[in-house]
Design brief:
By secondary structure, the chain is an alpha+beta fold. Helix content is 57%, strand content 16%. This is Peptidase.
């Protein structure tokens, strides 16, 4: 391989590395700005570290060019015209890869969210279908230490059954000083039935947004049975109503995930 061929090869490697780096930066910005969850954890780490390999290729090709100091300065006029037309299509092709990348990233994030929604709904249904006895206990809400402890034990058993089981909270409607509030009970309760200090409702208030309160009002006050699923920046939530004998509870699932589910 002569010097001209080495320079040509190094130019190809350098240009290719620059293009890959531009696409990598574009992809990284899209993922970070829009909070997209596309790749699996191991693929995400590989994706981040790949930039070092790209930079190594760029610097390597640059050093080779400097060492040989052989660059082509001018071409014949006719050849320049042919190359100009050819390069125009090349640049257009490279430009259209950006929207294609964006489409792939948003599509991957949508598939991750859809897969998570199916998983959460299946988990909620399994609780309702396979735990009839416990459900009857959960739906008979009274604000008492016994109910809180039994609910915590029930939810903890459900959470420990599957290692992929998301965080689960039981939501009920109550009142505090004449104002309606939503209380949330989780699988962890550190109290003792023999304690002389009784639990306080204010310690169990479930914080909600305006949209969530409107949804909860429709479930508890308007007899709606609609599910509510939301996904935002790696946080997935599912409100699953359960009604029996005129009583209503909501099983609330939440999970935070910093990577997606596409890939191997």
């Amino acid at each position: 391989m002569n010097a001209k061929q080495i320079v040509k090869l190094s130019n190809i490697i350098g240009i290719t590395s620059i293009i890959l780096l531009v696409y990598w930066v574009f992809t990284f910005i899209m993922i970070e700005v829009f909070g997209l969850k596309v790749f699996r954890e191991n693929m995400t780490e590989t994706f981040y570290f790949s930039v070092f390999g790209i930079l190594a290729l760029m610097f390597g090709s640059l050093i080779i060019n400097i060492m040989f100091n052989l660059t082509r300065i001018a071409e014949k006029h006719n050849l320049d015209l042919i190359n100009h037309k050819s390069n125009k299509w090349k640049f257009m092709t490279l430009f259209f890869i950006f929207p294609l990348l964006a489409l792939i990233l948003f599509g991957g994030d949508y598939l991750t969210s859809s897969k998570k929604e199916s998983m959460l709904i299946e988990s909620a249904k399994s609780i309702v279908d396979n735990n009839k006895v416990n459900n009857d206990k959960l739906v008979n809400y009274t604000f008492s230490e016994k109910y809180i402890k039994e609910t915590a034990n029930t939810l903890r058993i459900l959470s420990e059954t599957d290692k992929n089981f998301p965080s689960v909270t039981l939501i009920v409607k109550d009142s505090l000083k004449g104002s309606p509030v939503y209380l949330g009970f989780n699988p962890y309760y550190g109290g003792d039935l023999n304690d002389t200090i009784y639990p306080k409702k204010i310690e169990y208030i479930h914080k909600t947004t305006k949209e969530e309160r409107e949804y909860l009002n429709s479930i508890f006050d308007k007899n709606s049975s609609e599910l509510r699923y939301s996904a935002n920046d790696g946080t997935y939530e599912l409100f699953y109503p359960y009604k029996k004998n005129g009583k209503t509870i909501i099983i609330y699932f939440s999970e935070q995930q910093r990577y997606g589910k596409l890939g191997s």
